[in-house]
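Entry for L5UD5Z77 complex. Fields follow.
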Amino acid sequence: AKEFPEDFLFGAAGAAYQIEGGWDEDDKGASYWDVFTHIPAKIYNNDTGDVACDSYNKYKEDVALLKELGLKSYRFSISWPRILPDGTPIKINQAGVDYYLNLLKELKAAGIEPIVTLYHWDLPQYLSDLGGWLNPQIADYFGDFARICYKLFGDYVKYWITMNEPSSTCVNGYEQGIHPPGVPLPGAGAYQCAYVQVLAHAKAWHIYDDEFRAQQNGKVGLNNVCNWLYPKSNSTEDLAAQDRAMEFTCGLYVNPVWNGNWPQVIIDRVNYTSQKQGYSFSRLPEFTPVEIDYINGTSDFFALNIYTSYLIENVAEEAFPTPSLDQDAAYNISGDPSWTQSDAAWLYSVPDGARKVINYVNEKYKPSEIIITENGWADLGQLADQGRISYLKDYLSNILDAILEDGINVTGYTTWSLLDNFEWTDGYLYKFGLVQVDFNSANRTRTIKDSARWYQNITSTRQLFD
Ligand SMILES: CCCCCCCCCCCCC/C=C/[C@@H](O)[C@@H](N)CO[C@@H]1O[C@H](CO)[C@@H](O)[C@H](O)[C@H]1O
């Protein structure tokens, strides 16, 4: 058997909008997800997060489950409009503050380390009306929110994550418009959003560094989903496309905070296609030298989400009729028919990819610490979830090889997710939980699945058997 290091932080994750419910309880303000899900036909089955797992009222049960499963960490997010109803510091909602304080105290009593995400996609609607992640001033609002959270909760928190998956917010929300605010802006929206999110992240990091680090002694990091992408063939074109695809999906969002700027290949490509389209400037916003100095080196650890892998094939250059990120990126993405597919079409089990992407991130960004903040499997919610057990076992095995054989400092793993929950545009169709939630019962009854018992055995022995 292979063994995880003694202090390895095994845990599970969740996010405010996906589990809390209580969408308008106790003076909480509306987020743009509250508004979006209330528009008919945006979400599978018109599902909403209005009640979700009702963790706003049942957080003690959640912590008891974590404890029963022997988990040592819990990654959760703070709902910005639960603390600041319109996103601004004009009003702090005490009921929201109490909720997170109570949760943190409950975790502390159970000996569970919180890993707290400041922003997991629930932007206050008022700030969305102000332009959302296209407006650079949102970085200032985010800084104020971050400061308030550090002040209120920082004594309990050693790991802060500023943003969850800028790639998802920016591409789904502002390039494609399938997430809120729901307006597609191909070829411009995702880049502008990435620019603002990077600035917002850096602001939150600097505020911690300047005002809180000395007393609170925690770490602040940026999270992104970086999946390993395999070239479809060994042709020079496909290998270059593979490299480009890693940058367009991962580097675009993380390279600025680790290396001070956009990946060069993206700067070159967007400049080139913009010129071809008659622009006198690049559609990719340029960081000024002052901004580069400000954003560079602003992550204390790498918070890495890994789910799957894809095959990448170069797209031969054609005309450039309309701007789009896909056209700038110039590759096709697909799955390999030999890979096991989950119930969600986008998620294959390709465990080798986990070790490869950890090595990639480690070599490219040289973080002193990596935490795998999400990794999980989609099914339809059955208690006998052998597919999830196989997936977790194979991914954990590769993560352990990255630690033991490649010498990489991966210090924790929070599987996605503790509970079945609201899965964004898929509503309650796909489930990722170690614990089943009965969304048809008013009580949102929780039932432990087979995978949770399997995971409990791994976390208590720290051993993984082949
Ligand atoms: C037969 C079809 C084959 C299709 C192969 C091509 C696939 C194209 C790639 C597109 C991928 C789109 C969907 C990607 C989603 C994930 O990256 C994203 N959902 C990750 O976000 C986190 O995941 C959790 C589970 O979805 C989510 O609940 C959590 O909040 C997110 O942080």
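NOTE: Residues 15, 18, 164-165, 168, 225, 305, 307, 310, 333-335, 345-346, 374, 416, 423, 432 surround L5UD5Z77 (CB under 6 Å).
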